[in-house]
Amino acid sequence: FTMIFLAACVSSTEKSPESARKAAETNAALGRNYMDRGQYEIALEKLKRAVANDKTYAPAHTLLGVLYERIGKQEEAGKEYKLAVHYDPTDGDTNNNYGAYLCARGKPAEAEKYFIAAIEDPFYDTPAIAMANAGSCALRRGDLDNAETFLRQSLDYDGKLGSALLPMAEVSYLKGQYLQARAFLQRFEAQGVMDEQSLVLGYEIETKLGAEKSANRYLLELQERFPGSAQAGRAARQE
Fold it and tell me: Which of 206, 196, 132 has its CA nearest to residue 162?
């Protein structure tokens, strides 16, 4: 009778699936808030608690993946992203995040299937981002035609998406379509963001078009804003 009584006590303290999920959601939300504030140690504690509450709660695994990437633990990040996809294989955000991780780790071909899964999720709010990521990843592996297809699809959804406009300018440049490349780069510039990559690309496009003054403007801005840049030095030597 004693053993039966003890077993009953244990079972009575077990959390129901609903309460376990609620605890996981609460801790994941806390973890995300701490992560947004840069309090990574506390965020890690909360997110680990979230997956301990409910190991099948995919958003907690995704957040852990993001956090591990931020603190330089890439292998652990990959494991968490993979678990997130395992527990929620059709979710757009989950697949897009894992695809982005794989692409950044030099596995663009493997990444593409996760981007496609993200795009195919009918409830995914931002398919344009997954399309842009798929296009950039295809560009990374030198598949210009596939890159252009994904990037154009992305821009059909959101014609102002910088993460699609800049790689589309690069694809056009690599295909020798310099006027088209200029047009896409100008649309990117209209978003008010110019970085080292876009300045170098602008210099290269204008050089190919024989627009010396425009090329020099890009070069001067590149040298002023990124004086120690290897790309700035290379561009200067090409003059």
Answer: 132
Neighbour-count burial of 196, counting CB atoms closer than 10 A to its CB (0-12 exposed, 13-18 middle, 19+ buried) = middle
- In the chain, what percentage of residues exceed pLDDT 90? 84
Please answer whether residues 27 and 4 qualify as being in contact, where contact means their C-beta atoms are separated by less than 8 angstroms.
no
Radius of gyration of the chain (CA): 23
**In the numeric block, which tokens belong to residue 221?**
């801005």
User: Looking at the predicted structure, is the pLDDT value of residue 32 above 60?
Assistant: yes
Residue 192 dihedral angles phi and psi, to the nearest 5°: 85, 15
| 14 — pLDDT class (breaks 50, 70, 90) | low
Q: Is the pLDDT of residue 83 over 50?
A: yes
Q: How confident is the model at residue 73 (pLDDT cuts 50, 70, 90)?
A: very high
Sign of the C-alpha dihedral, residues 233, 234, 237, 239? negative
Are the C-beta atoms of residues 157 and 128 closer than 8 Å to each other?
A: yes
Count the alpha carbons within 13 Å of 128 in the hemisphere toward its beta carbon: 13
Who's near 22: CB < 8 A, 6+ residues apart?
none
Q: Which two tokens stand for residue 61?
A: 């695994």
Per-residue burial over 92-122, b if 16 or more Cβ lie within 10 Å, else e, is bbbbbbbbbbbbeeeebeebbebbebbbebe
User: Could you tell me which of 207, 196, 202, 197 has the C-alpha nearest to residue 184?
Assistant: 202
Tokens of 201: 């690309």
Higher pLDDT: 194 or 53? It is: 53
Q: Which amino acid is at 19?
A: S
